[in-house]
Inverse folding.
């Protein structure tokens, strides 16, 4: 009976941890997505100061979310997002707006892909 | 490398905890579901161990869920015969009074060779000597021989059998095992008297066993060993 109680407790804890992790990843990605959307807008109007401020905010947010996301998301997908953020900084320094816009869109797509792969759906379950 | 080492240690702790939670069973005694769970657990922990890109948390959660569901399922199985029958199946009688039940053999997809092999592994070479042979849910064959074929027991000879006793390990390598005194139905005072009579101290004794009928076996430590 002790084992049964222990199993139920562990099961409950695991379910709580899994739901919390799911909500956390979703929240972090949503935050990053919101900033990435503004980055795309800044690239379209070619506003360097605004783009720089947004990029700094994005980098800060990414560093803050890094540990939590690495715990639950496959690192390859995280690596792609990280490399895109670094590339965006270089594009902005060189004022290459076309590449900056493409990079911003790629970043947004990468974040959306992570979110989609974590989504509870029949497709992902099966 | 260091990362793999830390991850391996975490997995070791988790697997040890999970095995303790699931309880001890010999591989041959595992039910089909338990065997599959064991195989799945090994796969689940092997993947993140090989690839550091995969978060450990995902595997840990899956391992915990599988182990807990297995424990819950086994407890429900203890309470409900129907549930047990659905999850584990039920034993099937393959031989009755020396006659093979071919219908059951077919339903289990067993060949005569499989059956004869299982019988031979139990030192039975003639089906006619079998009263009942039962195919257990663990995939093992249990056999009851016909009464005339069974080996004689002490009671069959009419002799008076004494109750069995269990030799408890009281001292091992110079260290007293206090809990074993109860198994041997012996008090500490009796042990001290026994040691005194043998002119030995606990630290001098390599092995001391005793049963409730006071059958004592004492081995002293060898000098220089």
């Amino acid at each position: 009976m002790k084992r049964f109680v222990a199993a139920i407790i562990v099961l409950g804890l695991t379910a709580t941890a899994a739901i919390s992790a799911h909500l956390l990843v979703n929240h972090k990605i949503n935050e990053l997505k919101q900033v990435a959307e503004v980055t795309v807008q800044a690239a379209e109007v070619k506003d360097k100061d605004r783009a720089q401020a947004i990029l700094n905010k994005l980098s800060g947010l990414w560093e803050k979310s890094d540990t939590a996301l690495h715990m639950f998301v496959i690192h390859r997908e995280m690596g792609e997002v990280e490399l895109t953020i670094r590339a965006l900084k270089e594009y902005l320094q060189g004022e290459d707006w076309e590449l900056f816009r493409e990079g911003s869109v790629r970043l947004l797509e990468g974040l959306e892909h992570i979110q989609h792969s974590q989504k509870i759906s029949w497709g992902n379950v099966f | 490398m260091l990362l793999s080492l830390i991850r391996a240690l975490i997995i070791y702790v988790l697997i040890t905890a999970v095995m303790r939670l699931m309880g001890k069973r010999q591989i041959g005694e595992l039910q089909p579901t338990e065997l599959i769970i064991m195989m799945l657990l090994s796969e689940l922990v092997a993947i993140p161990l090989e690839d550091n890109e995969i978060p450990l948390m995902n595997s840990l959660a899956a391992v915990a869920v599988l182990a807990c569901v297995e424990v819950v399922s086994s407890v429900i199985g203890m309470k409900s015969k129907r549930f047990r029958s659905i999850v584990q199946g039920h034993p099937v009688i393959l031989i009755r009074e020396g006659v093979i039940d071919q219908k059951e053999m077919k339903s289990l997809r067993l060949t005569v060779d499989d059956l004869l092999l299982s019988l031979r592994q139990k030192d039975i070479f003639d089906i006619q000597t079998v009263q009942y042979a039962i195919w257990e849910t663990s995939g093992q064959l249990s056999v009851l021989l016909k009464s005339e074929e069974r080996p004689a027991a002490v009671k069959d000879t009419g002799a008076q059998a004494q109750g069995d006793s269990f030799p408890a390990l009281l001292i091992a390598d110079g260290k007293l095992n206090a809990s074993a005194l109860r198994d041997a139905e012996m008090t500490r005072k009796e042990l001290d008297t026994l040691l005194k009579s043998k002119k030995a101290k606990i630290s001098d004794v390599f092995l001391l066993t005793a049963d409730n009928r006071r059958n004592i076996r004492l081995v002293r430590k060898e000098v220089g060993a």
